[in-house]
């Protein structure tokens, strides 16, 4: 498709940006990517943005880009030293083909290309850093590394998004925030389904489910996490059928700050999210559910599922996560008498997916990180006021100038109560309190102690 050119028209700076504005100048054509083959994930998008950020710092004339693995992991907010998991996401990007269309008054050009070219990971032996090198396909390299029309994407803000669809819509919102009409591209439902899920195999779409399961949740996530703007869905009908949609970018005005800073909106209960993950939900799914569902309802349903799991007189649940989602939907937590759940039906007992070793380790590591951040939150809550003030001052001195401007503003306004800034603060506090990296044995013991489902 041909994209509109309504962003800035200068080349990205070669000098490193300031720490609070660590960002990538992302070509407009690379924001709403519709894969023609393969599939993109939230983590692969983060890794791609981090690679692009370092490519732009190294310059368009470099034939090969080079970076330490530790720096890539840090900038992609990867939170794991598992190179096998990293390799799997790099393969996904190499296997994903995209169509790149541009036009001018004298030329129309269409290119079909890989998203990423050759990648090498060099493990140089003990005491020497592991290095990552990568290339871009020649046909699109200059447009990626030195774009003429681009949108600034803040790496820290992008990393706050917990679903692929929210990450895409955040970048789309950033692109059209400064355009005259603040209206995104208008495309058919199938096109949007592929763009918002990163999937290339979508041929037909039931719009009701796309809106309920993907769009609405992503909009709620952006509304909760993004300070600068929100998005409104615009539906275009042909007869009674919705065939095309687009989004309007709505700047967040000062009058809304009181609502945004409300305590029931900004406090992110990591322990509650950890319980969802322990039940078998994926981290992205658990956090997405938390962001769009009443906290009391989630807590009550979790308590109900715990009771059901402990009831030895009833059949064993094949999928506690699926049972939880069905119980939440049907309001089982409001039923006083415990009744057996139906023994059949796809919503209650889908086949249990067999996790790969890489996915299993990632799940355990995510649980461990969430648990540690929850402990950091509890430790902070128990500190006397003078000690809390000292910790906050130390965070501001050591970390605040390294985070994105929206997160820094949220912190200065609301402190640890901010939903936008709290994750960054408690992650820093956890790392500061327990700086040692967990060994495989520590992670295994943690999983066994928590009785992690499916692991």
Give a structural overview.
- The protein is globular.
- The strands form 4 sheets. It has a 3-stranded antiparallel β-sheet. A 3-stranded antiparallel β-sheet has the order 8-10-9. Strands 1-7 form a two-stranded antiparallel ribbon.
- The protein is α+β, with helices and mostly antiparallel strands and 455 residues long.
- The protein is 49% helix and 13% strand.
- The chain has helices at 42-58, 69-75, 83-95, 138-145, 155-160, 164-176, 189-197, 207-225, 257-260, 263-266, 270-279, 283-292, 295-310, 320-330, 357-382, 385-398, 405-414, 419-433, 440-450, and strands at residues 23-27, 65-68, 97-103, 108-114, 119-122, 131-134, 150-154, 187-188, 229-238, 241-251.
- A hairpin with a 2-residue loop joins strand 9 (229-238) and strand 10.
The ordered string of helix (H) and strand (E) elements is EHEHHEEEEHEHHEHHEEHHHHHHHHHHH
Structural class: alpha+beta
* Unreliably modeled segments: 1-20, 254-268, 334-355
Q: Strand percentage, roughly?
A: 5-15%
Radius of gyration: 23 Å
Please outline the major beta sheet.
Answer: 3 strands, antiparallel
* Number of continuous helical runs: 19
The main sheet orders its strands as 2-6-5
| Helix-residue proportion | 40-55%
State the separation between the terminal residues, measured CA to CA: 43 Å
Mean pLDDT: 76
**Quaternary status:** single chain
Beta-strand segment tally:
10
Shape: globular
């Amino acid at each position: 498709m041909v994209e509109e050119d309504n962003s800035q028209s200068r080349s990205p700076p070669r000098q490193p940006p300031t720490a609070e504005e660590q960002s990538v100048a992302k070509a407009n054509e690379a924001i709403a990517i519709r894969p023609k083959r393969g599939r993109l994930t939230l983590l692969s998008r983060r890794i791609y943005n981090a690679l692009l950020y370092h490519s732009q710092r190294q310059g368009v004339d470099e034939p090969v880009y080079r970076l330490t693995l530790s720096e890539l992991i840090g900038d992609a907010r990867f939170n794991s030293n598992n190179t096998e998991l990293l390799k799997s996401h790099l393969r996904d990007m190499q296997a994903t083909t995209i169509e790149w269309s541009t036009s001018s008054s004298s030329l129309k050009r269409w290119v079909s290309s890989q998203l990423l070219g050759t990648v090498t990971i060099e493990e140089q032996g003990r005491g020497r850093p592991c290095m990552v090198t990568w290339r871009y396909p020649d046909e699109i390299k200059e447009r990626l590394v030195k774009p003429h029309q681009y949108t600034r994407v803040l790496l820290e803000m992008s990393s706050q998004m917990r679903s692929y669809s929210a990450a895409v819509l955040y970048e789309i919102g950033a692109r059209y925030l400064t355009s005259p009409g603040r209206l995104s591209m208008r495309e058919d439902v199938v096109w949007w389904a592929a763009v918002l899920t990163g999937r290339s195999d979508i041929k037909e779409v039931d719009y009701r489910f796309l809106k309920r399961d993907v769009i609405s949740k992503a909009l709620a996530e952006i509304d909760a996490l993004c300070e600068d703007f929100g998005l409104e869905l615009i539906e275009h009908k042909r007869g009674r059928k919705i065939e095309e949609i687009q989004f309007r970018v709505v700047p967040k005005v000062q009058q809304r700050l009181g609502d945004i800073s409300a305590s029931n909106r900004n406090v992110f209960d990591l322990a509650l999210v950890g319980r969802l993950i322990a039940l078998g939900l994926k981290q992205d799914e658990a956090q997405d559910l938390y962001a769009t569902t009443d906290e009391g309802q989630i807590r009550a349903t979790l308590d109900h599922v715990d009771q059901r799991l402990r009831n030895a007189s009833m059949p064993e649940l094949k999928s506690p996560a699926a049972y939880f989602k069905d119980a939440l939907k049907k309001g089982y937590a409001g039923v006083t008498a415990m009744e057996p759940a139906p023994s059949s039906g796809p919503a209650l007992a889908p086949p249990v997916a067999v996790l790969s070793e890489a996915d299993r380790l990632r799940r355990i590591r995510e649980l461990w990180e969430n648990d540690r951040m929850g402990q950091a939150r509890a430790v902070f809550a128990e500190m006397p006021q003078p000690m809390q003030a000292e910790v906050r001052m130390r965070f501001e001195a050591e970390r605040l100038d390294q985070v994105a401007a929206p997160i820094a503003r949220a912190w200065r306004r609301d402190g640890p109560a901010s939903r936008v800034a709290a994750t960054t603060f408690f992650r820093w506090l956890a790392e500061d309190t327990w700086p040692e990296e967990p060994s495989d044995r520590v992670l295994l013991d943690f999983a066994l102690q928590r009785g992690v489902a499916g692991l």
